[in-house]
Amino acid sequence: MNDSLPVEQRYLRKAGLVMLITVLNMTAPLSTDMYLPSFPTMMAYFGVQASVLNLTLVGFFFFFAVGMLLFGPFSDRFGRKPVLVAGLGVYIAACLLCAGATSVWQLILFRILQALGAGCMVSVSTALVKDCFSGRLRGTILATIQSMSVVAPMLAPVIGALIVQYASWRTTFLVLSGISLLSLTAALFLQEPLRPEARLRGGVWSSLARLFVVARNRSFIRFLAIVGLIPTGFMAYIAVSSYIYIDFFGLSESAYSFFFATNAAISVLGPLTYIRINGRVAPRKLITAGLSLTLGGGLAVLLAGRLAPLAFLLSFMPFTFGSSLMRPIATDILLNQQETDTGSAASLINFGNTVMGSLGMVLGTLPWPTFVTGLGTIAAGASLIALAGWFLLLRSDVPLSGVKPGPRPAAVPASSGSGAR
What we know:
By secondary structure, the protein is mainly alpha-helical. The protein has 18 helices and no strands. The protein folds into two domains: 1-199, Growth Hormone, Chain: A (Up-down Bundle), CATH 1.20.1250; 210-399, Growth Hormone, Chain: A (Up-down Bundle). The two termini are 24 Å apart. InterPro entries: Efflux_drug-R_Bcr/CmlA (IPR004812), MFS (IPR011701), MFS_dom (IPR020846), MFS_trans_sf (IPR036259). Keywords: Cell membrane, Membrane, Transmembrane, Transmembrane helix, Transport.
């Protein structure tokens, strides 16, 4: 291997690596959104109520978070490539099992296996970004991946509807297995970016214990607690947007899809804007601007969101743009807080965002006076707390690499014989 080449060229061509990481990050929305149009058919086939079939979604989200938490530390111990290949293998096998399920309980079990594989893929792909890119390029790559990944939840229901129109619901899982088989083929050509001497030593439990080591990093965990609040507002919107547009405003399903797609397009605009200003605007200002926009969006929903569908769309747009603008730089800052234990850091980042997003979905469906009021309250409240926490962090003596002056946090060695490098 020619060590004089840029690191990303030593593992895969840059475009190929970015595409692989992007597809890996698209796995979760494809796995949840693509089969939703098949729900009525699946309910009839299995002879169950919607509440039972919904366990295939609930189980997926829960074990997806578990998978993200577990496999990042394992990739620090065993290397990125073998863990990624194993996760892809589990995911592909689970998709095939889902396609052949003969009872809803089998489907729920196989969806749990599918979720574990998907969580592995997302955590390892985030660690690969830290391993293979650095500096301004890393932020650009994160923004590129995010902007491309947003396409998945936009296209997945459309693809799923076409599948159920011309084939059976089982075909959806066969398509997912085919997509992941292509990813597995690409992953087999990936040269391991984590050198043996940089890997964790010790057993499985000592690897998992590194999660607690990273969590004790004040710079990392405090900033994660701040930016992790924002997904509550966005996922609350995902959970209640159909009720707002269809039930509250009385729009048709097709009209709702137009408004939903327009907001999704704004979420693509955020990372594209970041790519243009990356390196020109200080991270401190970007985070402040992003949090200010999300707060403004939440307040606008409370003030004007109930007036009309267009007013609601325009009111929530600042929140969507601000949150998507922040996400690449926030992830980059979080990865910068750890010199080592990148897999564990990636796990905690993705796990934190998923848990807070799930909390937002629960909060959004509470019995508010209207769902518009609930969404505005959640978005504005989360943003206000995050903005206050951000200013407190800037004024504190806690260093934040890439944002505040101060030494980068040193790697915290584990005790002798238990996870030492």
